[in-house]
């Protein structure tokens, strides 16, 4: 177990124990060093899909789920559609027992509130098209500003009535089903979650769904995560024209961008009439590389000299964000991934700027931008326009918030360049903008900035990594909170 070093606590506030959900909170991070062992949280992307897949089944156990604000929203949606989610065993053995609706969702008696979870909204909007009646889905102000139009259009092609109440392609959404399946055309460069939604729902339609991509698929590894989960639940999907035409991704086989099954795909075919049946009635969620990226970055920029940060829970899976290991290696970090034991070791290193294409790994942009602010030379993050359509415009947000800390940054529509040699990070008050990934990336920057950094909206880490600040504290970081 990682050790605590109470002498490293920041002067302001109190030690940063896990925040109370939905309470307003600031985090205070001072220049400090980290070392020791820490475990990555379970994957948010896998957990969303596993909970919904269990909902589509007659029932299943989901082991080691991430129980966060976002995944709770997906669990609530499963319940609205007639499933049941027994949370009692979470504290005992880390298991969710889910009673599914067996491919036939009820018409919800209440509005489905997806809170801040775009994944929940997109995946369960397709579920709504299976129900024999109307479903209303909404979320918070941030979620109501995110694009849903291409998915609504695709459901319309299948015969559903799928509308934005404000006629702007954004939530609140109203969907009337049921659909039997069919053929759809949809862009691949706005959100891979549209494809995931159609694949998951299509398997339990009568006729299945054939998906034609009208533009290049961005974030392809996230579709591979979907294929991996579907495969584990006994659902078959054909990839049309991808890196391995006709293949399905499976855990352990997809560990680098070159192995992404969905990369270059022209479309997908999911036969109908299938059943969700995981082996032995259960599914285990792997560790989360998106969340792991902040811990690895912390070790690379703020590690104790001569000591390592060891991150456990890093077993290979279909997650594209495992690319953070290669990115750190290319930047000059001392890093080693023991795939068999699921551990990554990283040590404080002199980093150099590199070019990184985030077309398939949009969630890594905040981490890479922070690394670029510490590295020598320029770090160019390219192919990043789609990262503007997340919880916030992460391209502009990282440019502005790192700029408050003294970073020199050049922002273009599809490129973010961080000029590390011209940057001296200084503690400042920055705004997490309601985005969990911004909060965590800025906290890493605070570890190497002169003085103290205050991050507003720190409670939003609950979306994907509720114990993030606890983990930093356990590694020795000077971190505290105030409400």
From TrEMBL:
One GO-annotated biological process of the protein: aromatic amino acid family biosynthetic process
EC number: 2.5.1.19
Enolpyruvate transferase domain sequence ranges: 32-246, 264-472
Keywords: Amino-acid biosynthesis, Aromatic amino acid biosynthesis, Cytoplasm, Transferase
Signal peptide positions on this chain: none
Pfam families referenced in this protein's UniProt entry, alphabetically: EPSP_synthase
One of the record's GO cellular component terms: cytoplasm
Catalytic residues (positions): 363
Catalytic function, reaction form: 3-phosphoshikimate + phosphoenolpyruvate = 5-O-(1-carboxyvinyl)-3-phosphoshikimate + phosphate
Pathway: Metabolic intermediate biosynthesis; chorismate biosynthesis; chorismate from D-erythrose 4-phosphate and phosphoenolpyruvate: step 6/7
SUPFAM superfamilies per record: EPT/RTPC-like
Principal place of residence: cytoplasm
Residues binding 3-phosphoshikimate: 44-45, 49, 191-193, 219, 363, 390
Residues that hold phosphoenolpyruvate according to the record: 44, 118, 146, 193, 394, 437
Transmembrane segments: none
Gene3D superfamilies: Enolpyruvate transferase domain
A GO MF label: 3-phosphoshikimate 1-carboxyvinyltransferase activity
Compartment(s) where it occurs, according to its Swiss-Prot or TrEMBL record: Cytoplasm
The family this protein is said to belong to: Belongs to the EPSP synthase family.
PANTHER family linked to this entry: AROM/DEHYDROQUINATE SYNTHASE (PTHR21090), PENTAFUNCTIONAL AROM POLYPEPTIDE (PTHR21090:SF5)
Subunit structure: Monomer.
Function text: Catalyzes the transfer of the enolpyruvyl moiety of phosphoenolpyruvate (PEP) to the 5-hydroxyl of shikimate-3-phosphate (S3P) to produce enolpyruvyl shikimate-3-phosphate and inorganic phosphate.
Name the record gives this protein: 3-phosphoshikimate 1-carboxyvinyltransferase
Gene name per UniProt: aroA
């Amino acid at each position: 177990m990682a050790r605590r070093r109470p002498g490293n606590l920041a002067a302001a506030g109190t030690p940063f124990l896990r925040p109370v959900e939905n309470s307003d909170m600031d985090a205070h991070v001072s220049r400090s060093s980290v070392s020791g062992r820490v475990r990555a949280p379970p994957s948010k992307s896998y957990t969303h899909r596993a909970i919904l897949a269990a909902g589509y089944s007659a029932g299943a156990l989901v082991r080691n789920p991430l129980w966060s604000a976002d995944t709770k929203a997906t669990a609530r949606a499963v319940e609205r559609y007639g499933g049941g989610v027994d949370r009692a065993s979470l504290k005992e053995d880390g298991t969710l027992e889910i009673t599914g609706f067996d491919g036939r969702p009820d018409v919800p008696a209440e509005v489905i509130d997806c809170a801040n979870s775009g994944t929940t909204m997109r995946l369960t909007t397709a579920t709504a098209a299976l129900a024999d009646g109307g479903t209303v889905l909404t979320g918070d102000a941030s979620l109501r500003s995110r694009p849903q139009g291409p998915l609504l259009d695709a459901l319309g092609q299948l015969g559903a009535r799928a509308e934005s109440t404000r006629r702007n392609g954004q939530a609140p959404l109203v969907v009337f089903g049921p659909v039997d399946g069919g053929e759809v055309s949809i862009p691949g460069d706005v959100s891979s979650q549209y494809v995931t939604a159609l694949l998951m729902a299509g398997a339990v339609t009568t006729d299945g769904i054939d998906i034609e991509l009208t533009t290049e698929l961005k974030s392809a590894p996230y579709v591979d995560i979907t294929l991996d989960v579907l495969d584990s639940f006994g659902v078959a999907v054909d990839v049309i024209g991808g890196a391995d035409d006709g293949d399905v991704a499976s855990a352990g086989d997809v560990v680098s961008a070159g192995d992404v099954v969905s990369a270059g795909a022209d479309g997908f075919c999911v036969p109908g009439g299938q059943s969700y049946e995981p082996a032995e009635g259960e599914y285990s969620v792997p560790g989360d590389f998106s969340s792991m990226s902040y811990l690895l970055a912390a070790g690379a920029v703020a590690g104790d000299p001569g000591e390592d940060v060891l991150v456990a829970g890093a077993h290979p899976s279909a997650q594209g964000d495992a690319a953070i290991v290669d990115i750190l290696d290319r930047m000059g970090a001392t890093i080693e991934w023991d795939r068999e034991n699921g551990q990554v070791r990283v040590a404080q290193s002199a980093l150099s700027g590199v070019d990184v294409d985030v077309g398939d790994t949009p969630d890594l942009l905040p981490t890479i931008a922070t690394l670029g602010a510490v590295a020598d030379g320029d770090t160019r993050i390219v192919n990043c326009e789609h990262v503007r359509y997340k919880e916030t415009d992460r391209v502009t947000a990282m440019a502005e918030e790192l700029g408050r800390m003294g970073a020199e940054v050049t922002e273009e529509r599809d490129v973010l360049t961080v000029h590390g040699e011209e940057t001296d990070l200084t503690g400042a008050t920055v705004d997490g903008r309601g985005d969990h990934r911004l909060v965590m990336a800025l906290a890493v920057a605070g570890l190497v900035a002169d003085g103290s950094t205050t991050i507003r909206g720190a409670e939003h880490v609950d979306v994907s990594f509720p114990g993030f600040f606890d983990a930093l504290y356990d590694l020795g970081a000077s971190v505290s909170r105030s409400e």
